[in-house]
Amino acid sequence: MKVYISVDMEGITGLGDYTYVSSNEKNYERGRRIMTQEANVVIEAAFQQGATEVVVNDSHSKMNNLMIEELHPDASLITGDVKPYSMVQGLDGNMDAVILLGYHARAGQRGVMAHSMTWGARNMYINDTPIGELGFNSYVAGYYGVPVVMVAGDDCVSEEAAALIQGVHTVAVKKTISRSSVKSLTPARAGTLLKQKTAIALQDIENIAPLAPPDQPVLKVEFTNYGQAEWANLMPGTSIIPGTCIVAYQAKDILEAYQAMLVMTELAMRTTFC
User: Fold this and answer.
1) Is there a contact between 181 and 10 (Cβ–Cβ < 8 Å)?
2) 115: annotated active-site residue
3) pLDDT over 70 at 273, yes or no
4) CA–CA gap between residue 117 and residue 5 (Å, rounded)
């Protein structure tokens, strides 16, 4: 059994605001230590369930947050930026199960530090289905026929996952009070729960269907201002939907849609607020 773990940061236990997830802020070193410890709990649980390989992809910001010197010695780590497939780099059909750890709700929704890839994206759609990082990454897993068996983060992303992926196991390690405050389990308590839930999820692989993406999907990204849409529209093949800040792209498959989303959101970040 080969297990793939994508680890984001906003949904990690005890992390309640941006000071824990931005590398130049005072709580960041605390945040990355807790992130690494939480990843280790899930990795160890996967090996205990018979995993022969565990691949961990650092999926937050510049994607170099996990402390490899403290990571479980039998796991392998994908780290650094730029990655052609970002939060799902290294995921393919050779994997048996995907775990999304430390995840958060999509942009515009209630949840701790909720967003979709960047502060500039208000909404993302595959065809007319609104999705965030959770949904997009689950679609890529589904493209390869691999189920997302567990999603861990706050209560809001747990609800989002349950509505999107039939049979997925969820772990809410903290409860949303506001976008920048939480009621959280302690790392010790969360670790016990994550270990239990990882075991249950991996024992249930056969009962969880991959989230199959649509063929030839239309990607639509709604930006917060028109200048961002103009930058995103510089990518060949895109168009701005008249009267909106939505940029659309007809993709040949979900993998192309994913990379188009990465390019569009990166271009949009170049705009200013002036």
Assistant:
1) no
2) yes
3) no
4) 18
